[in-house]
Amino acid sequence: MQTTGSGLIEVSHALNLTSLGLTVDQERVYRHLLRSPGEVPADLSGVDVRAVLDQLRDLEVVDDLHHPAPPAVVVDRLIRRRVEQTSRELHRLSSAWVMVRDLVEEQLRGRPVELVERIEGGDSVNRRVWHLASTATETMNMKTRPRSRAEPDEKAEQAFHRRLATGLTSRTLVPAASLDDPTQRAYALRQHAAGDHHRVSDHHTRQLLIIDRSVAFVQLDPADQWAGAVEIRQPGIVATLVESFEAAWTRARELDVPLTTIERQVLRSLAQYDKDEAAARALNISLRKYRAHVADVMTRLGATTRFQAGLLAKDRGWL
């Protein structure tokens, strides 16, 4: 390090605040204020000190009286700001894969990909959807019932389950009335168990599928699922549909998945035994496994205490 005539220290460290987002001039002024709080540098060749101080105030590195924030606070703020910037940049870069997919689509179709395209017929829609879903990382699905005539065959369903097992995130929203049908309920439970997270809405829902928050499919005719769909890639429209789905998802309730035999036994044991060790021995499972079951059941019930879990279980008819 070298000292300038104004008393400012020239920073030559390999690791300094510039690596966290400050400019060289901002760091030099901040270090000066650490040594002399409130004392504005009188001379800094080629630098508008007042402008630098304004920048530091905007970054919450110094206050209005030119007193510096503590180093630990400054570093923490700069790290958080840098992480947020990096996160935004990663999101922007990841969106580039959408361009790759569009280019591939253009190559396959032999024509430009349209931002809004009408697709005639349920079979054509299914082929387009399953082609895109085969490489997707996230799907959002809103249905009028869990399973429709347009659902894929058993082989395709198994392929979907394999995608779920290898990282695909999928959420599906279905209306409560559709679950009165035992076949529909069984299908929803099967998909939910495979990793397609289902929630139930007390309101009527429309057919909507969003893939990777970049492509949406909306049914052409609400009364005829075989009429076809509109494929939408226009970013503003897709973003609006994503917001609508998220709002409906937040209002919906969890799918009431039946308890397994061991989960029922664990719930009963909460009222029968004072100690986890005794309960685990009675159920002939390890203490670690028992506590894992207890945590899972409490999460499903939304309970914060074991006593509350017992009350909620009784209310739901689980005990």
Features:
319 residues, flat, Endonuclease, Chain A, TrmB-like, HTH luxR-type domain-containing protein, 15% strand, 12 helices, DNA binding, disordered N terminus, WH-like_DNA-bd_sf, 10 strands
Write the layout of secondary structure elements.
Elements: E1 2-3, E2 9-10, H1 24-35, H2 49-58, H3 71-94, H4 96-109, E3 116-120, H5 122-133, E4 138-142, H6 154-165, E5 169-175, H7 182-194, E6 196-201, E7 208-211, E8 215-221, E9 224-232, H8 235-251, E10 253-254, H9 261-272, H10 276-283, H11 287-301, H12 306-315
Helix pairs in contact: 1-2, 9-11, 9-12, 10-11, 11-12
Structure, described:
The chain has helices spanning 24-35, 49-58, 71-94, 96-109, 122-133, 154-165, 182-194, 235-251, 261-272, 276-283, 287-301, 306-315; strands at residues 2-3, 9-10, 116-120, 138-142, 169-175, 196-201, 208-211, 215-221, 224-232, 253-254. The chain has 319 residues and is of the alpha+beta class. The protein has three domains: 2-93; 98-254, Endonuclease Chain A (Endonuclease, Chain A, 2-Layer Sandwich), CATH 3.30.870.10; 261-315, Orthogonal Bundle (Arc Repressor Mutant, subunit A). The strands form two sheets. It has an eight-stranded mixed beta sheet with strand order 3-9-8-7-4-5-6-10, with helices on both faces. A two-stranded antiparallel ribbon has the order 1-2. α9 (261-272) packs across α11 and α9 crosses α12 (306-315). The termini are far apart. Residues 256-313 form the HTH luxR-type domain. InterPro entries: Sig_transdc_resp-reg_C-effctor, TrmB-like, Tscrpt_reg_LuxR_C, WH-like_DNA-bd_sf. This is HTH luxR-type domain-containing protein. GO terms for molecular function: DNA binding.
